[in-house]
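Recall the central idea of this unit: under ordinary conditions, the amino acid sequence of a chain determines the structure it adopts. In this exercise we apply that idea directly, starting from the sequence alone.
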Amino acid sequence: MTTALPERAGRRCHNVLNPLHSAHYFSPELGKELAEVGVTDPNAAYFAVRAAAMGPVGAGTVTATFYNFRHELVARHVPAVWRTASPEVVLAARARVVDSTLRRLLGDEAIASAEVAEAAELALRATEACTRTARPLYAAHADLPVPSEPHLALWHAATLLREHRGDGHLAVLLDAELDPLEALVSHTATGKGMAPKWVLSTRGWHREDWDAATRRLKERGLLDTEGELTESGLALRKEIETRTDRLDAAPYEHLGAAGVERLTELAMGLVMAALAAGAFPEDMIGKS
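Accordingly, the structure predicted from this sequence is:
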């Protein structure tokens, strides 16, 4: 049984759950744990921990499912990383990273709290309505067991919800005819996306690639001469989020309005604590 939700309630819930998933990508624990299993390059570590649920896949699969990375960067590390550490070894290391990261950011008292257990229960309930069809990253993670500890179960549920929305979002980007870098450039232009220096240093793209994507968006009338979104560009980005919301509505409708509101409240408290503890780089988001 589904329940009508206030407009954008599911998106707001996603926006506070997603950082609980993604904080481990920026944690010092990630480099430490992956180095201990032989993976010392930061890019290789990221590709490995996010792709490991799919098994020892090749570069093509990672490029396809991650969408906004330059294929040449992916191919530099995948599938070679699996010869250093198998997906099973990487998944075990990732679990240790998530545990230590959340304990450092939130504190042991919060980790053991009734609020974290409640948030985990609500988030897992929402995932009951997620669907595997045409959602490869979600489907791979959905095949993994749910951890027994509440904070890890919450992270697992946040991961499922993140990848479920993300897989749908990629379909919308394709339909909007935005290639990987055009998607990044236009998102950055909203002021809510990753700053250019972060895109260029982590996604494998070069400045000339960024400039070429900017020119293409200008030719489509989506960016103005200053690189800001035009009315058409703003409308397209809004439509992308609205259509992504529609494809991602089922988990939150299944949870119901009261459950979504409570989960958002609980996750917000945890995220604010994580942000205060320095979970993310301060200069990561912005137009410059």
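The first helix runs from residue 9 to 22.
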